[in-house]
Amino acid sequence: MTRVHDMGGRFGDGPVTPEPEEGPVFAEDWHGRALAITLAAGALGQWNIDTSRHTRERLSPKDYARFSYYEKWVSGLADLLVEKGVLTVEDLTNGGDDALHPLASRALKAKSVSAALASGGPADRPSDVPVKFEVGQKVRTLHPAANRLVDGGHTRLPVYAAGAEGHILRLHGTHVLPDSSAHGLGEAPEPLYAVVFPASQLWADPEHPNDEVVLDLWQSYLEAQ
Amino acid sequence: MPHDDHNHPHALLPPEPALRVKALETILTRKGLIDPAALNEIIDTYQNKIGPQNGARVVAKAWTDPAFRQALVEDATSVVADLGYYGRQGEHMVVVENTPEQHNMVVCTLCSCYPWPLLGIPPGWYKSDAYRARAVREPRKVLADFGVALPQDTAVRVWDSTAEIRYLVLPMRPAGTDGLGEDELAALVTRDSMIGTGLPKVPA
């Protein structure tokens, strides 16, 4: 099983509400603050992007459903800061203190923001895991969708695509495996593919006979057909 | 092991979201862990400097320069980096081209992955449960929510951004734009047309 965030294909959410192209980037000031704090705290180097995604996914299903987008971000961040020992429960309860933190020397400075955002964090790594599939080859995804290293852990194989037959569209190179990286088990890079599935493999009643869905999937999520 | 402790620390902060953010910002600032000036800089970057105008330039150039278009669909990351568009959430780019036979649409069903250097911060609807849940299963009904109807025989290919690869849709160049230059063409390229939930504007 995966978690509450894994909602691809779900029924019952109602219409999508488009927004004007020229609308504000941040609908509320605190949205921008939530994003900026999350990015700046990430620069302290105490976790990676997979850990931080998994922290949001681990919000209880009730919280995940009732929180707005940036509420999930800031709540996940508070949880992560305490889990990683950067802050204590007392800090959150009493507002913290003014003693300089041991990690303060790593704080992102205004003058470094532009370079930090421009350099990003590539996820490709050299790997000695041999490439197993070639473009055009038929594959099937694992079933059930689940982290095979950690029970209830992070994975990027959505439930709707578990046990489905498709074929390799493209090899993206070798990338960090989120199932391992999110849990401090190492980056474990392996081949990553774009895999294309006929909509009829995924849905009981697809809209059109030629529709397809493409997912980016790691080699260990796939079996040869 | 994942921590499924139900006493989540976030519950210790004020419940009202704006106050929750403010409280966390204050705690981190007091300890020297974040610099409020850096926060302002991050917000300014995504509010004013990086946005869909970047992607629109790439699309307009692809419409006017066949060699660029070819290079873009073969190796988007290096081609857009040459134009200065690289960075966080755009480290691995793939550009997918619409044709009369196939329309492309991008979603992230698991979170909100989106090509920041080319499109900026995603709009609210892109991050909504409704879009994340429905785009993969009923793309035409979602397109109808945007007022878009595709020809009967056009197939839809939906790209679910499950890894660190970020996708940009290259829409078809609208008819009646033969004499237009790159700047005029870029003005026709909408954000939604590069996500695949819209089509470019047609010249007046």
Structural commentary:
The complex is a heterodimer of chains A (225) and B (204). Chain A has helices at residues 29-42, 49-57, 61-66, 69-83, 89-94, 110-119, 178-181, 199-202, and strands at residues 138-141, 165-175, 190-198, 212-218, 222-224. Chain A has 225 residues and is α+β, with helices and mostly antiparallel strands. Chain A folds into two domains: 29-119, Nitrile hydratase, beta subunit (Cyclin A, domain 1, Orthogonal Bundle), CATH 1.10.472.20; 138-224, SH3 type barrels (Roll). Chain A has a five-stranded antiparallel sheet with strand order 4-3-2-1-5. The mean pLDDT of chain A is 97. By secondary structure, chain B is α/β, with parallel strands linked by helices. Chain B is 41% helix and 12% strand. Chain B has ten helices and four strands. The interface between A and B is large, with 117 and 90 residues.
Task: Describe the protein's topology.
The complex is a heterodimer of chains A (225) and B (204).
Chain A: H1 29-42, H2 49-57, H3 61-66, H4 69-83, H5 89-94, H6 110-119, E1 138-141, E2 165-175, H7 178-181, E3 190-198, H8 199-202, E4 212-218, E5 222-224
Antiparallel strand pairs in A: 1-2, 1-5, 2-3, 3-4
Helix pairs in contact in A: 1-4, 2-4
Chain B: H1 17-30, H2 36-49, H3 52-64, H4 66-74, H5 76-82, E1 92-97, E2 102-107, H6 116-119, H7 129-134, H8 139-145, E3 155-160, E4 165-170, H9 182-186, H10 191-195
Parallel strand pairs in B: 1-4, 2-3
State the distance separating the first and last CA atoms of chain A.
23 Å
The pair of chains with the biggest contact is: A-B, 117 and 90 residues
Task: Give me the CATH fold name of the largest domain in chain A.
Answer: Cyclin A, domain 1
Q: Segments of chain B where pLDDT lies below 50 for 5+ residues?
A: none
Major beta sheet summary of chain A: 5 strands, antiparallel
Question: Quick one: CATH class of the largest domain in chain B?
Answer: Alpha Beta
